Amino acid sequence: MSEMTRDLIAVRDGRDREAFGRLYDYFAPRLKGIMIRSGLRDGSAEDAVQDVMLSVWHKAAQFDPHRAEAAGWIYGIARNRRIDLARRRPLSLPEELPEPESLEPDQAQVIALQQEARHLAEALDRLAPEQAEVLRAAYFDDISHSRISDAKGLPLGTIKSRIRLGLERLRHELRDIAP
């Protein structure tokens, strides 16, 4: 049996103030650190520690050394206190985001997207047909690699290689238009 457990039994059985003082001196700084790490400010953390240690004093009669060590029992009280405090805290409201001036893209964006789409279509046309076909299926039609493999009757590794090689070639073809 640990010294802390003996002290808590002394508090439970004899309301021993010296034993409680030793428990307080040991646990208060540790509990404060836990409370601060869990998001409480310094003053709130100290108040929470006071509440926990007050509960230890008042609930010492409920301590059973056969079920838990003193540290586990005290940390359990602290955990429950922290949960209670978190439940009482009002939920923060999300910041209001400014509404965009217009949801419509401006003309320059539309033209830029059209040009990028044209460059992509031209680059896809320059790929080997088997690479372009699997890239279109995977990225435009959103078909999984395994389904493409089944549909084509080719091994999955072949499909993945064609996709990888096709993407590498596209990257090379489109490098001049990338930002």
UniProtKB/TrEMBL annotation:
CDD domains: Sigma70_r4
Keyword Membrane: no
Alphabetized UniProt keyword annotations: DNA-binding, Sigma factor, Transcription, Transcription regulation
Domain RNA polymerase sigma-70 region, first and last residues per copy: 23-89, 123-172
Database matches in Pfam families: Sigma70_r2, Sigma70_r4
Residue ranges the record marks as coiled coil: none
Single GO molecular function: sigma factor activity
Record bears the keyword Transcription: yes
GO biological process: DNA-templated transcription initiation
PANTHER family: RNA POLYMERASE ECF-TYPE SIGMA FACTO (PTHR43133), RNA POLYMERASE SIGMA FACTOR SIGZ (PTHR43133:SF62)
Family per similarity comment: Belongs to the sigma-70 factor family. ECF subfamily.
Protein name (database record): RNA polymerase sigma-70 factor (ECF subfamily)
Organism per entry: Celeribacter persicus
Species classification: Bacteria, Pseudomonadati, Pseudomonadota, Alphaproteobacteria, Rhodobacterales
